[in-house]
């Protein structure tokens, strides 16, 4: 799937893509997938729809009128379930959405390589070169590991199966290994992307003497499956703590990618993507947020934006003002962080000290003193270089 085709239903050709998606999930008899496409169409109405509100009302009525049900599975056979509750062990997303993924260029280049491998699978096989079958993603919480799995599944036009290992690892002897094996066997019955989330849940508890036998069996199952995983599917493991993984497990992956916190360029891209579907926000505001969120993950930025956007609706206020207010709340009450906020507001937004004081709820002298300290810190940093 090309980059252009991943821009969503609001871009050119969006209506055609929506129809194709509806046919794809509809012919599989998957009612939940049809409702998923319909929900996306309500959020991002394609160009060419003259009466947007009427379209959304009609889509909502159509969804409400449908019979709730899981429909047919994407492959023959039942989805594996827990023995005692019949609850599905794995989540299935027939239309994964990874449009919001923003990672460093080098990381995105490697992900695109994985996609190109599938596009030229025959050439690689003729050359005796295997495809990437397994991928290990690591990094702090919220940096985009799950979104990366969605992006790959979307790019490969494959369903995404997600298994949270932290929830499936059970204290009952024999249950955990059996549950994981049943999910792995199910995932191999048809092409898919399988995400094993919280992968370190296996390694974290290996020192627990009361459960070491069960965990050894689980690790053995994983080792065998990593070696035998078919190249028609892609197995992705995600962990926040790669250092806790068994060394033998880590070596089995075809690729390993560490996802750091987003840099300035990535933060700017994430915010620009969020701003594209919101009320107009001044570029200077986006630069201010970019400048002062160096320690935040992509998930943090999305949550920050959603909170400000929600308040702008509830308060009938300007989104730019709510973004500044939320920045002021998140920056430390006192100290270098708040001083940098004052300085950035003056230099980027070109507002006076009194305006800064009004926006952040502090006194005018407090702003003036904070700016002096921030300027002094900047001068000191430059002199060291």
From TrEMBL:
Residues 131-263 form the AAA+ ATPase domain. SUPFAM superfamilies: P-loop containing nucleoside triphosphate hydrolases (SSF52540). Gene3D superfamilies: P-loop containing nucleotide triphosphate hydrolases. The keyword ATP-binding applies. InterPro entries: 26S_Proteasome_ATPase, AAA+_ATPase, ATPase_AAA_core, P-loop_NTPase. Keywords: ATP-binding, Nucleotide-binding. GO terms for molecular function: ATP binding; ATP hydrolysis activity. CDD domains: RecA-like_protease. Pfam families: AAA. Belongs to the AAA ATPase family. This is ATPase family protein associated with various cellular activities (AAA). It comes from Leucobacter komagatae.
């Amino acid at each position: 799937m090309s980059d252009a085709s991943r821009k969503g239903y609001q871009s050119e050709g969006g209506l055609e893509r929506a129809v194709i998606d509806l046919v794809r999930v509809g012919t599989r008899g998957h009612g939940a997938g049809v409702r998923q496409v319909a929900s996306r169409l309500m959020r991002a109405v394609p160009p060419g729809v003259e009466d947007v509100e009427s379209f959304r009302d009609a889509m909502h009525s159509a969804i409400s009128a449908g019979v709730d049900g899981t429909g047919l599975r994407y492959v023959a056979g039942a989805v594996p379930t827990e023995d005692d509750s019949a609850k599905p062990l794995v989540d299935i997303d027939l239309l994964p959405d990874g449009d919001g993924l923003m990672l460093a260029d080098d990381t995105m280049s490697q992900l695109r390589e994985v996609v190109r491998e599938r596009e030229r699978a025959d050439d690689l096989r003729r050359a005796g070169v295997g495809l990437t079958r397994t991928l290990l993603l690591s990094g702090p919480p919220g940096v985009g590991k799950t979104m990366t799995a969605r992006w790959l599944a979307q790019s490969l036009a494959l369903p995404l199966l997600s298994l949270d290992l932290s929830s499936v690892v059970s204290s009952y002897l024999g249950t955990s290994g059996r549950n994981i094996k049943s999910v792995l066997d199910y995932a191999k019955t048809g092409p898919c992307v399988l995400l094993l989330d919280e992968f370190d849940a296996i390694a974290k508890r290996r020192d627990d003497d009361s459960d070491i036998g069960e965990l050894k069996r689980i690790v053995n199952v994983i080792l065998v499956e990593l070696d035998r995983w078919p190249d028609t599917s892609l197995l992705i493991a995600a962990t926040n703590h790669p250092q806790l993984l068994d060394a033998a497990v880590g070596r089995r992956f075809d690729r390993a990618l560490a996802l750091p916190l987003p840099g300035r360029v990535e933060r700017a891209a994430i915010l620009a993507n969020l701003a594209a579907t919101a009320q107009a926000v001044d570029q200077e505001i986006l630069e201010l947020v970019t400048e002062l969120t160096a320690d935040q993950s992509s998930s943090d930025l999305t949550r920050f934006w959603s909170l400000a956007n929600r308040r702008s609706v509830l308060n009938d206020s300007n989104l730019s003002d709510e973004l500044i207010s939320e920045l002021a709340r998140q920056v430390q009450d006192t100290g270098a962080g708040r001083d940098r906020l004052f300085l950035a507001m003056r230099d980027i937004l070109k507002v006076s000290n009194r305006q800064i004081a009004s926006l952040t709820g502090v006194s005018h002298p407090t702003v003036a003193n904070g700016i002096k300290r921030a300027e002094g810190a900047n001068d000191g940093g430059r002199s060291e270089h």
